[in-house]
Amino acid sequence: MKRYLLMWFIALPILLVLMPAALVFWFSPEISPVSQPTVAVPEPAIPAMKESASSLPVKVYRTEKKAVETLPLETYITGVVAAEMPAEFELEALKAQALAARTYIVRRLKEGKFDDVPSGGQVLDTVQHQVYMDEKQRRERWGDQYEWKNKRIQQAVMATAGVILTYQNEPIDATFFSTSNGFTENSDEYWEKPIPYLKSVASPWDIQSPRYEETVVLSTVELEKNLGVKLTQEASTSGSWYRIESRTTGNRVGTISIGGKEFTGREFREKLNLNSSSFTLDLRGNQVFITTKGYGHGVGMSQWGANGMAKSGKSAEQIVKHFYQGISLQEYKRVIPA
């Protein structure tokens, strides 16, 4: 009897351990016999740009070749973003640039006015419209950096494919420029045309741009010749040789009086080929030191501002909605016939 009791006391703990394990085995859902650790799967490489046959065609007049090339929309946008914005910029800034570039061409195609392009073309590949670089040009410019730069540009374009910026269901005039003086400009204070979504907004990030501030030196003779004015000796020595008559909302020169004539800030900038209409003048003997802030007309999206916003964590949508007030994002097929 003692022998059986001893065996029972030995078997009981074993049964208490094995029975629950057996129940779990028989009644649990099917599992793999070998447990595998969870492994993060890397994102696939960006595939080569492919577009359907129904993609919107763009007829680009290639200035150097003096020929028209018909390109699928997103292929064209890839070439524009590559030419208009450094590939080193933040991805969200590149996406914002793709949205602006796509909107520009869709608006142009919708309006159907191509009289500023040689016969058969719809858009130029120069700064007159949007700069465009084909694959060969990108390879030549980027050299051994071509692969990563091209993939980065493609990633931005593909992430925004087919999307444009609209105001009241119409493609906007998505103007952009390099660098602001800290503010963008109201459209009517540069082009004398009020556009509701092209309003002056702050862009403090532009101070990081290498073109934020520059000084050029002209002789008084050059200044007089380019402006068609004559500086009087009295004005030169008295320190009142010019006067800023007004400033714009974006703190650029609105109008300036010099040599008995009045110019808008835009006229002054264009006649002297200055970076910006935000400038100061300093006469030293027979030389004029002109210091500009910003680079470009100042209306719409600042590219360096966009990059600064992206660095601070803003998305492409937040960027474009900052620089283009009151806009929406839509598929281009909703606003242009197929």
From TrEMBL:
Keywords: Membrane, Transmembrane, Transmembrane helix
Residue intervals passing through the bilayer: 5-27
Gene Ontology annotations of biological process type: sporulation resulting in formation of a cellular spore
Stored Pfam families: SpoIID
Superkingdom, taxonomy of origin: Bacteria
Gene Ontology cellular component annotations, sorted alphabetically: outer membrane-bounded periplasmic space
Domain Sporulation stage II protein D amidase enhancer LytB N-terminal: start-end pairs: 62-167
PANTHER family recorded: AMIDASE ENHANCER (PTHR30032:SF4), N-ACETYLMURAMOYL-L-ALANINE AMIDASE-RELATED (PTHR30032)
Name the record gives this protein: Stage II sporulation protein D
Taxonomic source organism: Brevibacillus brevis (strain 47 / JCM 6285 / NBRC 100599)
Lineage: Bacteria, Bacillati, Bacillota, Bacilli, Bacillales
The encoding gene: spoIID
